Amino acid sequence: CVKKIFNREKGILFLIIAVFTTPLYLYCAEYYTDVFSMPISVLLFYIWICMDVNNRRKKTILSIIYAVILFIGIKIKLTSAFVFIAIIMYELGNRNYKELLKRVLPIGAIVIILTVMFDQIIVNKLAPKERWINEVPKEHWIMMGMNGVGKFSYEEYKYTNSNETYDQKKKADIRKIKERIVNRSTDEHIKNITLKLGFAWHDRNILG
Question: Distance of CA 116 to CAs 8, 60, 107, 111, 121, Å?
């Protein structure tokens, strides 16, 4: 990316800096969605730069590839879409509005089509609801985040899955969230947030 934007010399300089960026080595030691989405973010930026060509056929192919990679990135980690959003915001001040729309709209349309196809074919057809008997609602993670330092708790997981249906799990989790909000004072909430921040940032553990 740096080479395409600037030149070969600055590209080499960037690689040297990257080699000595130790957090990358520590971060990649954990198998997590954040790690798998890292190359996706780089590819989204790189292919966008490569799309600045006069060859219409090449530009169309790159747009399709870009949309597919963006879709995969979103499925791995939703934050991958932030790269696309950031690029659009940057281009709004550097590119003709109509030209930007011509590039963004087809990509957006392909991503939407792929998402609908994925949900209809993969999720609804190939993954029947019986397979998701242990699925937990999003409220479960909010509830778990309010417990201690906010790390994974098997007891919390058992609590949620002690309910049979998805709706029952959701209601039980919301009830527990309300209990924790009501039963804690403002000072206790602040202390809990401080405790969670300390746990999350005291080392390289990105899973906490």
Answer: 41, 22, 14, 9, 8
